[in-house]
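User: Structure with coenzyme A, tokens only please.
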Amino acid sequence: MKMFRTKILGTGSFVPDKVLTNDDIAKRVETNHQWIVERTGIHTRRISDPAKDELPSGMAAKAAIRALEMANLTPNDIDLILFSVTIPDMFFPNTASVLQEKLGMTNNCACLDVNAACSGWIYAYPMADALIKTGVYKHIMMVGCEMTSGFNNWDDRNTCILFGDGCGVTIMGRASEGEDAQVYSTVLSSDSTKKDHLMLAAGGAAKPIREEVLKNNEQWVTMNGQEVFKAAVKTMASHCDKLLQESGITLDQVKWFIPHQANLRIIEATANRLNFPMEKVAINVDKYANTSSASIPIALDDFVRDGKIQRGDIVLMAAFGAGLTSGAVLIKY
Ligand code: COA
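Assistant:
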């Protein structure tokens, strides 16, 4: 069987125009800019406007057009849409199918939503890689898109400061003969013993939205911040170590580390544990907060478009999220 190497052919991203500052949040709950910056590194976040079609499918359509342009492809060249989303447009049809329509696609390509919370886009990576490598599909659109404002409780200062909306898209395809773009190694995991530390318990079959749920304010995200923090650092660092060992790549060879953008202190602690210099760590949590599974592909797109990530660069990416899921990917861009 002929095997291929997986290459990122194009990247694109979109964040809504509406900026919500820490001072804006402090008008509603008891908090302040300094506390938020010191504990999280977050200054602002973007909030989507459904009236401007900034639902997950709408944000994804805008980011996808940019990624397709960079890849020099048209929507109908895509064989599969892998759409990572935590709060989809609706339960079904899946958001990937809604995106297919919004992109005007007529090729009836395969459409699948992936939910691994903030790790979702990283979870999609080895799946896309396997399908490209083995020649099953030629072009896969990998979306990480989140409207976290849909689950954010603006009256809970423990969580509402953390999240923002946005989308990142990559178009995955085959490297040509002679190109050395590739996926070196990937790892995925989930520790369900910690699943209750980060959840949105209502809205599904277990607890449908009823009067009682609304009365108890259970329709929002809940979190045990410190437990998530500890698990995030430990898991991301050990996953990164594993990939480096498996692939024989040294930390010196890694040009950029793109961690999930949940909290600057988590990012610093992970880099510290890995012995990785902060100058080579991609950061956008200050501007966009935690955009869940969109955070890594948004940062990747920003860095590619700024020329910071060039062809041939080795890039390490790692994520964690509710589940508690986690994953990491080591690639040559
Ligand atoms: N503003 C001011 N004070 C706040 C606050 C806010 N927004 N949120 C919490 N506090 C208070 C707490 O009530 C607590 O007060 P107390 O000591 O009187 O009880 C105090 O600040 C310390 O709270 P604590 O939870 O210990 O703070 P922390 O240093 O752990 O920081 C987080 C809280 C949420 C920023 C931090 O735990 C975190 O980022 N965890 C990871 C969360 C995450 O990334 N989730 C998404 C994963 S994908």
